[in-house]
Amino acid sequence: MSRPRIPPDWIFEEEVIKNSPSRKAGMSEKEELDLKREGIEIMKKIGHELGWKLNNATGAACFYFHRFYMLHSIQEFSCPTTALSCMFLAGKSEETPKKCKDIAQNALKHFNNIFRLNINQLMDDIMGMERVLLQSIKFDFTIDLPYKYIIMYANDFKSKRGFDAEMVAEFVRNAWTFVNDSFFTHLCLAWEPQIIAVSLFWLAIKIRHHEEINETKWWEEHVAELCSDKMETICHEVLDYYTLMGNG
After folding, report:
1. From CA 145, how far away is CA 56, in angstroms rounded?
2. Where do the Cyclin-like domain residues begin and end (predicted)?
3. pTM summary value
């Protein structure tokens, strides 16, 4: 299978990510990551309350969020309000729309320590920020989440390779969790979704001590010329996040 066609404007070199608008404006790397992770937590919590899943509208909102902050600084646009606007937009772009009022109510209910506004003020901020978001991403709603590729690999392992369904299901669960947690990192800015999915499925196999499976280089059927060193680099971004959380 060929690699997914992601507009090149949304894939960034490592040095560009490290020199984001927020960093250029004087924010430290740790502070930037902490504030972005707060925004992701808001989207995950409210998405859950709205009945959304990370493999649909909530995941799309996370993509919009990360992309926005490659164009604007956190100093200029606070993460919490941007997060809500990303959700408002993602609901529409992913055909699971929610009223702005519902998003605002959930924000005030679960994050009243962050959003110190009345509901009408917050709704105005969300809709105003959505206009900035739309202009920033140039109305490009191209989203290709990694989850569908994980399902593809699982089906391939079962139908073509004859692996035990229970074993494959465990790989899927672990890889799915890794993808969920990858939204707390910058992976979606640096790599195409299929590359992320392959790497994290490879990690799911590795942590269950089935190195003999990875030795077959099964991923080459899906993504040609992807070396294990590159996958290690991708996986370590997620593993480093776990280490950071464990030390927090």
Report:
1. 8
2. 41-135
3. 0.92
pLDDT in tens, 198-218: 999 999 999 988 888 888 899
Counts of helices then strands in the chain (DSSP H, E) = 13, 0
Q: How far is residue 127's CA from residue 52's CA, in Å, rounded to a whole number? A: 20
* DSSP secondary structure of the chain: -PPP---GGG---HHHHHT-HHHHTT--HHHHHHHHHHHHHHHHHHHHHTT--TTTHHHHHHHHHHHHTTTS-TTTS-HHHHHHHHHHHHHHHTT----HHHHHHHHHHH-TTT--S-HHHHHHHHHHHHHHHHHHTTT------THHHHHHHHHHHHHTS---HHHHHHHHHHHHHHHHHHTTTTHHHHS-HHHHHHHHHHHHHHHTT-HHHHTTTGGGGTSTT--HHHHHHHHHHHHHHHHHHHH-
pLDDT given for residue 1 in this prediction: 36
